[in-house]
Amino acid sequence: MSTEDNKRDNTGDSTGDDSAGTPGPERPADSLSSETRLANRYGAPKPGLSARTKIVLGSLAGAAAVGAVIFMAIPSGAGTLTSKDVGFEIPDAASAVVDFNVTRPADSTVDCAVQVLSDSYAVVGWKTVRIPPSEDPTVSLSTSVRTDSLGVTGGVNACWIVEQDS
């Protein structure tokens, strides 16, 4: 090896096999920020809602919530229909007696579906009871229901106002 070869090796100008550990040429740094590069690649981000729009939407949502609460809190003028189970008796496997109260508009005819359930919650007895109009809006009733098998509980399933034919 000559002196000139040593000089080339020391300066890194050699084209030998020892270039594997040296880094490759560096890329010039671009002046674009990462946000600009992302916007160029995927498109610019969509602008958000303005503060005024957020305030208007929030106010509308609040007003709707208040309106819904008021609507649910005020009872309807048509009168309400409610039923309350008072008790039941199971004298044998073929019958049950159900006691209940119904509050309805005094001038309305009401039908109530009374049911008896087994220990597996199957309906074993069902009866529709008609309640005629009366002066008192709340009536207490006791009705006997035939059952297919032994029941363990009884009560009112639903009540509804019967429309009168004119």
Please specify the SSE layout and strand pairing.
Layout: H1 3-11, H2 34-42, H3 51-73, E1 82-92, E2 95-103, E3 109-117, E4 123-131, E5 138-146, E6 153-162
Antiparallel strand pairs: 1-2, 2-5, 3-4, 3-6
How does this structure look, described?
The protein is elongated. The N and C termini lie far apart (125 Å). The mean pLDDT is 84. It is built from 3 helices and 6 strands, in the order H-H-H-E-E-E-E-E-E. The chain is an alpha+beta fold and 166 residues long. A hairpin with a 5-residue loop joins strand 3 and strand 4. The longest helix has 23 residues. Strands 1-2-5 form a 3-stranded antiparallel beta sheet, with no helix packed on it. The chain has a 3-stranded antiparallel beta sheet with strand order 4-3-6, with no helix packed on it.
Query: What's the helix count?
Result: 3
Uncertain spans, ≥5 residues at pLDDT below 50? none
Bulk shape: elongated
Q: What is the radius of gyration computed over CA atoms, rounded to a whole number of angstroms?
A: 42 Å
- Main pleated sheet: 3 strands, antiparallel
The strand order across the widest sheet is: 1-2-5
Average pLDDT = 84
| Helix-strand makeup class | alpha+beta
N→C terminal distance? 125 Å
Strand content: 25-35%
- Helix/strand order, N-terminal first: HHHEEEEEE
- E-strand count: 6
Q: Classify the helix fraction into a percent range.
A: 10-25%
Q: Keyphrases for this structure?
A:
single chain, 166 residues, alpha+beta, 3-stranded antiparallel sheet, 3 helices
